Amino acid sequence: MSLKVCSRLVPVVSNSVSALSVPRYSFCRLLSANRLVTPSVGLVHISSCKYSTKPSTAPTKPHIKEVYYGVLTPQIKAVKIFSLTSSIVGLIAQPFLYSEIASTGNIPIILAAYSFIGFFTVLTPILLHLVTKKYITHLIYKEDTNSYVATTVNFFCLSKEIEFKSDDVKVPSVPGMFTSFTANGKSLFLDPRLFEHPEHYAKIMGYDKPLDFKLYEDSESNVKKN
């Protein structure tokens, strides 16, 4: 661009800036921010603002925290995955194994082999599920609803959540096998020593509630009748 053209553009740009009431230093900042100046028309095109003053409408997550983690969770998942995988492989290979075993013609061997294969392919995953289905892998406390969410593992080694409150918990007088308490009719098992905050265990088990002397009164009445 020659000096004559530049000298012609300076009055046009200065008049445009004065018409817009923009200070010189602001105009320099606009030029440095890659704004477009059209010399032929004498207009300054300013891009729209990229920032908004509207408050953020992003939904906030409820305040939750993990109060319990079962240390046997990795082992339980590994054993269940191995058992399910071996069962699937065993079911696929059963027709070939049965044909080979039946070709021997020995009935005791056939019965023993069928029992052994059926036990490891069908009964083993079922027995593991009966033992581990009550085990709590994670326990989360929701402060907004004052409730707990217990996570267990189902038959296919997938996580299953059970939400309950302390009022929904029933502690059996005689604890069953792998049962610490029942919540909404579901038996659950956990280790009290693994709680990060013991007050949550006391709240779940009802230790923070007044003692119930109904059992003691019933025992006294039975003694008097006898």
Automatic annotation (TrEMBL):
The keyword Membrane applies. Signal peptide: none annotated. It comes from the Eukaryota. InterPro entries: TMEM70 (IPR009724), TMEM70/TMEM186/TMEM223 (IPR045325). The keyword Lyase does not apply. GO terms for cellular component: mitochondrial membrane. One of its GO terms (biological process) is mitochondrial proton-transporting ATP synthase complex assembly. This is Transmembrane protein 70. It comes from Phaedon cochleariae (Mustard beetle). Belongs to the TMEM70 family. Pfam families: TMEM70. The chain crosses the membrane at residues 78-97, 109-132. Keywords: Membrane, Transmembrane, Transmembrane helix.
